[in-house]
Amino acid sequence: MKKRILFVDDEPMILQGLQRMLRPLRDEWDMVFVDGGEKALAAMAESTFDVVVTDMRMPVMNGAQLLTEIRKRHPSTVRLILSGHADKDLVSQCLGVAHQYISKPCDPEQLKTMIHNACLIGGDRVTDPIKDALGSIDRLPTMPAVFRNLEAALAEPNVSANRLGGIIEQDMGMTAKILKIVNSAFFGLRRSISSPSEAVTYLGIDTIKGLVLVNSIFERAEPLGTRHLAMEDLWRHSLDTATAAKAIALAQGLSRAQAEEVFVAGVLEDLGILVLASNFPQAYDRAIESLLAEKALLTTVEQQEFAVTHAEVGAYLLGLWGIPAPVLDIVSMHHTPHLITDPGISQVLAVYAADILVGELGGNPIFRTGGFDLTTLDRLGLADRVEPWRTAVRAQKAQQGGDIHG
Ligand SMILES: [Fe+2]
Ligand SMILES: [Fe+2]
User: Fold this and answer.
1) Which of 66, 127, 240, 396 has the fewest CB atoms nearer than 10 Å to its CB?
2) At what angle do helices 256-268 and 172-183 cross, to 10 degrees?
3) What is residue 142's three-state secondary structure?
4) Distance 198 CA to ligand 2 centre (A)
5) Which CATH entry fits the domain spanning 3-120: 3.40.50.2300, 3.30.70.20, 3.40.30.10, 3.40.50.300?
6) Residue 106: strand, helix, or coil
7) Which parts of the chain have pLDDT scores under 70?
8) Model-level pTM?
9) 358 C-alpha to center of ligand 2: Å?
10) How far is the CA of 94 from the centre of ligand 2 (A)?
């Protein structure tokens, strides 16, 4: 089905320009153009839109006010803001209400990729109640210990970007949020960033201090609300997987930079669990109860309870937040390696293998996997690699005194 996109700008000239520029996309998108917030809300009351792209500076109702209203009335609609650099103050007002920013003048290709990533990855599989919940999420729960470390580090006079990045990347909620911020066009970046250390270096320590201490971009943790899953279990599992995935990537000869990216994707792989468990704690508890009773896999019971898995939900939220496509692929495919098409070792495979090998070494039964898909490994020419991967992960664990994460 064609995606329905609503464009809002108070200046008719700009609206006409957009319409002309986007005409080649009319076979893919159903586009409606209106010249103000009131008309936008009226159009949305009449029919459903997948995405709204609005100007920031408008009389009567500005972009932030319009998006706030849309978040309330139509939470699952993807909310994008188009803004010029002079509007930075105004844009910072809606750090929370827009999913992504597009800087003016906008390039149709960039807009197309952004809309594609924001609504297609997992978008057709994720159900409406989950989309509604995801559409209004702005922050994710964090691990209290990591949050405290970050606050202490921010108070040090000469703290380095690497140290701050190293703390942020221990927590999936903080990692997702910092990548969302740095990759938004608000900061005018021309390439995508997929590691927290790079994000801190790019934004600068003072900006990070402001974002954390003044804008409160990170949520101070609250318990998840689930009886059968504690934040601590998920945190431990994500760090174990990330560390193991990095060890596998290095053992396979991937570069340091690629191995770093694998670590970050490993931290984010189960972001969907955090999202589902914190937004639907009772349903998630029911899913875990049947997992324990039937010795079923997490993805199977999630599918029964939510009609979608944490892999799809995680990738959907990260896409909505503008996280680079390679990370989305790793998150969306970490339980479905049969979807991988390129032969040989890949970053997705390193995370997939790490998840399985970490499970072999014990840990919480909730995260148990179904073991290696040998048909797929054979097709990718990697059937003989399982043993070296296992060795790399065990060596890593032994080095850290039995606890994979350090
Ligand atoms: Fe997973
Ligand atoms: Fe996992």
Assistant:
1) 127
2) 120
3) coil
4) 25
5) 3.40.50.2300
6) coil
7) 85-96, 118-125, 185-190, 401-406
8) 0.81
9) 9
10) 33
